[in-house]
Please model this.
Amino acid sequence: MAGERPLGLSFLATLELALSIIQINIGALLLIIGNPLPSVFPDLNAGLTGVVLLIVGVVGLLLGYYLFVGQAFGWIAAVSLGVADLIVRILLPVIFGTSWIVFTVFLELDVIILYYLTRPHATAFFGGEDVRGIFEKERVEMQPRLKEMGFTLKLVRKSSLSIIGAAIVIFYVCMALLAPVLAVPGDISQGGDPMMMPHYGESLVPKLPSADHPFGTMQGQYDIYYGCIWGTRSALRIGILVAGGSLIIGLVIGILAAYYGGWMDEVLMRLTDVVLAFPGLILSMALIVVLVPVGVPRLDAVMLSLVIVGWPGYARLIRGEILRVKNEDYVEAAKSVGCSDFRIIGRHILPNSIYAVLIVFTLDMGTIVLAAAALSFLGLGASVGYADWGQIIALSLNWIYGNPAAPFQYWFTFVVPGLFISMFVLGWNLLGDALRDILDPTLRRK
Amino acid sequence: MGLRTYVLRRLILAIPVLLGAVILIFAVLQFLPPGMRVAIYITDPKQARFWEQIARDNGLFEPVYVQFYFWLRALLIDRNLGIDVQGVPVFTAIMNRLPATVEIVMYAAPLIIFIGLTLGVRAGANKDKPIDQASRIMAIMGTSLPSFWFGIVLLSIFYAGLGWFPPQRYGQEVLKYLTNVGTPWRWYTGLMTIDSLLNGSWWIFVDAVRHLVLPITVLSLLNSAVMVRVTRSSMLEALGKDYITAAKAKGLSRSEVVNKHARRNALIPAITISGLMIAGLLTGVTITETVFSMGGIGQYAAESARALDLPPVIGYALLSAVLFVLSNLIVDILYAYIDPRIRLG
Model:
């Protein structure tokens, strides 16, 4: 029965939901208006933190929902959370003096989620029915899903590769978030931008690792340790923004092509053919050479070109997945009951094809960072001095020979940043491969 | 549908893709103002003062479709890709540097296929044995190591440390010998390894090989990783089929089951990956040539891109698109030739 669930679990679920809604809000706030308090958080990377918070928030929301589905006061919790959220929205502009735009940021998202979560319960409540019956029904309906989640967790525990991969990824995320603590930015040599590496003198010859510079300095006396730590931020930012941008474009185009078919499918797929007719890195090279003279900042040009090269892969993948699912009986059933296109896509097709996308997204994080590093190495990345692994290696190219007496004298200038890139890519690759074994319905029961 | 109809249909399908690729490049160029786009029509730096006249003559102020006609005509009939910063026509520059690139790819591609197929088949047949673990490590390296970094590390060990395999295309003595006026040397193919043998100069052949070892190693080791994985998994799939059980049941030896029944079927999916390998090679060549200063078209494009010199980069992109589409076409035809289910199904 509904009332038999431990109180602690409900409390936990409520807390989870509350936290995630706050996270979503702060994330959206950071993304849209940037750093709200530059005086208190001088090193806050608003874009990166915002994206991370949004993702964490959405995950937390789902978790919280799963946790409290089936307990009697769930919908009351959800409604009060909605109210709490409104209060947070009002408090932010009042206390911190931020723009009232914050009030409306993703308001509709919250409303949709809350509406979706509470609709059946509210209808029943206001209709004078017994709400507990609905919760009991939901609990029974949830059983198979909870069982699958349990099985997934068991697979995760059994797969050591997934744990290693996740550990590496979490390690890098922590390093990116803690960058201001791990490598304190100076202010004189950097022009106030923590992403620019501090440099100590103009001498071209790299200096060996010392107490002040744990990984030594490279050509131009840039501190390699600082560059590697802060380079994690640029790698994560490039990865998330490029993979996210490609995913969004690919999602829209893939859905349009697969669901509507006909001439739209033909036109959109020929478009992907044309982009895929070029080897990716070479097309992005050409795009950067066009974008930079037009006035696009170098780093943006790199990301934009990688998105232009990257979306067709997602579009094809999503189209293929949807076509696979489209003729399944349950979609036919939904159609025959008269569900709208939007509902069929969002409720029946996407949830069944999203795993493949998630896996490719994870693997892509590594591939994109590799491509961006290669572009940096070719001299097409950010301007000199920007903390970026590819650039550090490019700057070390003149120092791989050392001198005849000590051929490996300057090994640290390229070995250290190279290990940073390789481990980063390795982590995402391991995670992606493990996710494939765990989530892919055709592999997980093997 | 016979093989001939299939080939014809694939050929016809490839034409719109190529045209689309050309249109895409043209569309990208439209972002630039006419003053920059006129660069491809200026064949002599002295003409730069009269750029407006040249732009008008070549239709740069006309509507877009007229411009496209002019551009395509210049591209196809005059093979005009513009000139680079040094004033050399891009087409000539690419042709001059092509042999250096061909020489790397010529040895790397068969090596990739050989490593990919043999290691993949053996790893699949010996699942979880040492050779399978080796293939796994190689796949992880191939997907996680930045190729330019791998090249730099190899260069540091084998050139700076051991002095075995130097960078660049020729050593000092060879360069001096070749540029000397009285040298009895004839270019046949432009490929150092072949021409040195045709000229009968062993020492030049040895020099050429020493300069080729590292770039080929980097290209083939990292690019064959994907092929190893694909061959391995299709080998595993083939080994799980009923006809393998049947073959085992009738008492065939293990090697016969693996080599005759499983391997033949497992190799078919691996062929489709060769198309991907071509893209990997074109990208890989760009980076490897830059690391080792091999002086091929990849390095030419990369150095031009660094200097924001547009015509060579555009020319290289067009060339690689054509190569990529054509090689995919060949792969598809090969696939249909080997697997009758494709052309008949």
In short: Chain B touches chain A through 52 residues (CB under 8 Å). The first helix of chain B runs from residue 3 to 29. Chain B has a mean pLDDT of 84. The radius of gyration of chain B is 24 Å.
